[in-house]
């Protein structure tokens, strides 16, 4: 983006009430280890969130497009006109 304020208006300013996160001389790890019930509960919550993400995607995408002038579909098909097989890859 040419103007960083467009993005900051959408996602918000970087939090300043966590000074330890930005101190490069004292790195920290936050929430990296879970075991037992916490681990299972966390993955359950992530799964539930993903199942409901489609409900809000269009709303958030429209808000972002209005703010930035850029539109992104939920799925961007590329060179699929005559494809017999499609791979859907994440990360």
UniProtKB/TrEMBL annotation:
Looking at the record's lineage, which domain of life comes first?
Bacteria
Record keywords: Pyruvate
* Annotated protein name in UniProt: Pyruvate synthase
Q: Which organism is it from?
A: Alkalihalophilus pseudofirmus
């Amino acid at each position: 983006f040419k103007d960083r304020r467009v993005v900051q208006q959408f996602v918000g300013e970087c939090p300043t009430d966590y000074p330890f996160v930005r101190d490069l001389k004292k790195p920290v790890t936050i929430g990296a280890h879970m075991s037992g019930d916490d681990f299972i509960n966390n993955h359950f919550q992530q799964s539930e969130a993903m199942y409901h993400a489609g409900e809000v995607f269009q709303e958030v995408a429209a808000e972002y497009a209005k703010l930035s002038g850029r539109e992104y579909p939920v799925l961007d098909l590329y060179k699929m006109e005559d494809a017999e097989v499609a791979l859907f890859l994440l990360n």
